[in-house]
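TOPIC: backbone geometry
CONTENTS: sequence, C-alpha cells:
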Amino acid sequence: MFLDLDRQERSKLAIKDDSGFALTYREACDLIGGFDALHLPRCVVFCLCENSAGSLIGYLALENNGQVPLLLGAKLDTELLKRLSDLYLPAYYWLPQQMRDIVRGEQIYSACGYVLLRTENEPYPLHEQLSLLLTTSGSTGSPKLVRHKYGNLDANARNVAKAFAWRSEEIGICDLPMNYTMGLNVINSHLIVGATVLLVKANLMDPAFWQFIRENKGTSFCGVPFSYEVMRRIGFDKMELPALHTLAEGGGKLTDKMFRWIASFAKNSGRRFCATFGTSETSARMAFLNPDMALEKIGSIGKAIPGGELFLLDEQRQEDGSTTGELGYRGPNVTMGYAFCREDLQKGDEFKGEYHTGDIARRDSDGFYYIIGRKGRFLKLFGLRVSLDETERILKSEFPNTDIVCTGDDKMMNIFITEASLKDKIVPFISGKTNIHNSAFRAILVDEIPRNEYGKVQFSVLDGLAKG
C-alpha cells in the first residue's frame, strides 16, 4: 500500500484533525479500501484540499488506487478553478461536503466530511508513470503543473524521514496546506514511519491552534519564514509546549536574524532546529541542515538529503574559497516535468532525475549550501511560490485598459499600474484571487511603465521607484 500504511501498527493513531476526526491506521486503510472497491478508471481527479482527515484520506486513496489527483486549495477562487477544470477536464472531484454544490456531479462515495463526485468528463490517456499533479505558482490557478511519477513521493518521504530520524512515536504537526509540497511532505514523511499526523486548519495566531497542539502533544513543527515571524510576535518562545522537540523550516529564505533567533531558542530550550530547502519539482525537500550545525552555519540550507545530490551549474570560484552557481539536484524524488494542458499528461520523464532550480547558491569550503538569489521571476510570499508573470496575466485579464508590471521580493510584491482609479482596487482583487494576505502586495502608480527601445520593461528603473 502507498507509504506502507498497511504495514504500520493497526491500532496506532494515524491522523487527527482539529475538526474532530481521528483515524487509526486500520481505519485509514479501510477507507482507502472503500475507494478501491469503487473500481474507478485511471483518470484525473481534482482534490479541493484543506487540512482535514477527509482531504488526506482522498489523496492517500487516489495515490494507492492508481488515479491521478491534482491537489488544489479548497479556497481557490471559483473562476480560477473553472479555468483549470475546463483545461484538464477532471472525471471526478473530491471536495468538502459543504462545497458539493459548486460542481455538477453524482455523489458516489463519502468519508470524514468529504464527498466524491463523478463529472460528465470522460477519462483520457495519461502516461503510465504519472501519479500526482501539483501547481507551481502558489494559489494563482496557473495551468502550469508539476508531473510526479510513481516512486517520487515514497522516496522523498523515506529519505526525509531518515534525515530527521523520525520514529513511530512522533506526532507531526501539519499546519502548512497539504496541497503545498512542503505540507504534503510533512504528512508523507511521518506516515511512512508509522507516526501520527495532526492536521490543523486554525491560524497560528489563534489560541485554539496552540491549544490543539498542546492537548495532542505535538512533537514536530514545520513552518515557512512568515510562520516564524508570526510566532515571534505572539511570544512562541514563552509558550509551554513540553512535547515539541523539533522545529523545521522550509518554503523560503529566513533572514539571518530570524534564523539565529530560532536556532538559539532551540538550543537553549533543549530542542533542535532543522533548516531545509525544496521545490515541488523535487517532491519537496532536497536539502537538510544538521541541527548541530545551525548556529555555526547561519542561513545555510545544509547538504543534500539521503539519496540525493546537490551541485552547482556554471561554477564560479570566489576569493574566500567558496563556489557560486545555479543550484541543481539529482535524486529519486525528481519529478517528470511540467504540464500546461491535458495533452502534456501523456508525456514521459523529461527531467530524467535531474532538476535545475533557478536559484543561485553558494557552496562554502565545508560543502554547505546557501541560497543567495533567484534566477527566474518567482517570489515566495508567505511561503507560497508565486509567479510574477502569472499574476500579471490575471491582473491584465481583469483590468485590460491599464499597463501592469509586477516586481518584488519574498517580502512584498510591487504592482505598478498606470491608471489612478485602480490604485485602491488592485490589492484587494489579487489578494482575493490568490488567497494571500493583502499585506504581501503594494500598488504603485506611475505615469508609464519604463521600457527600452525594444519594448522590454526596464526593471531596474521600477526597482528604483519601489525603493523611492
